[in-house]
Fold this sequence. Notes:
By secondary structure, the protein is an alpha/beta fold. It is 30% helix and 19% strand. The chain has eight helices and eight strands. The protein has helices at residues 17-27, 49-58, 76-80, 99-108, 154-162, 165-168, 180-186, 208-216, and strands at residues 4-8, 31-37, 63-68, 88-91, 112-117, 135-139, 171-175, 193-196. An eight-stranded parallel beta barrel has the order 1-2-3-4-5-6-7-8. Strand 4 (88-91), helix 4 (99-108) and strand 5 (112-117) form a beta-alpha-beta unit. Helix 1 (17-27) packs parallel to helix 8.
Amino acid sequence: MDIELTASMMCADYGHLEQEVKELDEGGIDSFHIDIMDGRYVPNYAMSLNDMRYIATATSRPLDVHLMIEHPNNRIGLFLSNLRQGDTVYIHPEAEYHPSTTLQSIINAGMIPGIAVNPGTSVETVMEMLRIVKKVLVMSVNPGNAGQMFLPYVGKKITKLLALKEDMDFEIYWDGACGADKIMEFAPKGVKGFVLGTTLLFGKDLPYGETLDNIRKLKF
């Protein structure tokens, strides 16, 4: 089964960021997940525009930019001008007055539009946007910090989205507390990709390439 694996770069070793990107790239990661936090939409600061810009120049692989910021439309041009066509940009619908306007800006720039759905956000409240976006990032933890516990009721939300994805033409991605058990359960059901952080990828004693190979060899 063909799944997409993306590295959560907020979990990387920033003392050796160039080496981290190189080893992930050579190890076969599919894309680099960039978490941008403003300290307002979520109670934390994470990666910055400069971090994103550097990683965009250090790899030819796609970037998945997750904007956890208030009113992203006010600054969307700053991010889009430093990305490449084919990169993905996720916004949180609750963070914007008119999220469809922001999504259209992402589309016009040649990027892949996505929304991130928090654990407390119902599918019904984002239904109209599901026809606009190509990717839905389902948060299995509350956004803002790495290493949180999985919230089990998120599984029912994924079931609802799986029933809609063919008709509305979007793919589903998993973000947060992603262990091998979650990939083995949800990949066969139709979840396309998984964001890998400290649970499976970072802070282990194995080379990234070996870890990624082991994940791809899981029995679905």
